[in-house]
Amino acid sequence: MFTDKINQFDRMFLTVMIGPVLFLSSCTFPGLMSQTSGTSIQTEDKVIVFFSDGDKIEDEKQYYDALLTIKEQYPVDSENFKVYQEEQKNPFGISKYPSLLVMDNKKVVIHIEGMVQTKEEILNPLRKVLKH
């Protein structure tokens, strides 16, 4: 029983601490956002924008799990991905973390913010937008 708790803790630790590093290290960010023009996006493609609070990464587990799933299922769409840490000034004025925006044709089509109970709460709307 004690061994099971240690194994569960190890899995949770790896997911929370290592998962985001692996995910973020594989993302590309070439010129997706304009830092000077508010919410304008330089591409008409779909863009996923994630706003993270590094101090509360445990609250973001469902977001990271959902984004890793999207990366596997929609590799082309996940190329247009941008992450903002709380301490960075973002051009969207987002102040509630975690938050996720999906933009299509320079318009916000999904905005999810705050804690969610399951990754499906994030995946369901993302799948609807990304499959078109």
From TrEMBL:
Bilayer-crossing residues are: 12-33
Q: What is this protein called?
A: Small peptidoglycan-associated lipoprotein
Which keywords does this chain's UniProt record carry? Membrane, Transmembrane, Transmembrane helix
From which organism does this entry originate? Metabacillus flavus
Checking InterPro entries in the record gives: Thioredoxin-like_sf
